[in-house]
Design a protein that fits this description.
The chain has four helices and no strands. It is an all-alpha fold. It folds into three domains: 29 residues; 35 residues; 36 residues, no CATH class. The protein is rod-shaped, with a radius of gyration of 38 Å.
Length: 109
């Protein structure tokens, strides 16, 4: 063996050790990121909560919109809307058809 060969083996070990440490150091953040974030159940809970809040906000918005729409109308129109709403509520969700005589002799708008 030549004297140069003796210095070459520790040098290879240092390079190999350095490369191994560099690889482990670069892989370490990937492993750490795998533990971050929220779980599936927590995400589902958050999604359900968000949907519930959105539904509530939509209901409030619709109520405000109806109130604003009614405020824009004149008195006769508001009265007509009120009468039709009462009639619709009285007969349920099916079509609210007036009785025969009301249809025959009733007022037309």
């Amino acid at each position: 063996m030549a004297p140069d060969d003796l210095n070459l083996v520790p040098m290879k070990r240092r390079i190999l050790r350095f490369l191994l440490l560099a690889f482990l150091a670069s892989a370490l953040p990937v492993v750490m990121h795998a533990q971050e974030g929220i779980g599936k159940k927590e995400a589902e809970r958050m999604q359900a909560k968000k949907e519930k809040e959105d539904k509530k906000a939509a209901k409030v918005k619709e109520k405000e919109d109806r109130k604003r729409h009614l405020g824009i109308q004149d008195k006769a129109t508001r009265k007509r809307i009120k009468q039709n709403t009462k009639r619709a509520n009285k007969h349920g969700t099916n079509t609210h058809r007036d009785p025969f005589f009301v249809r025959l002799f009733g007022r037309r708008h």
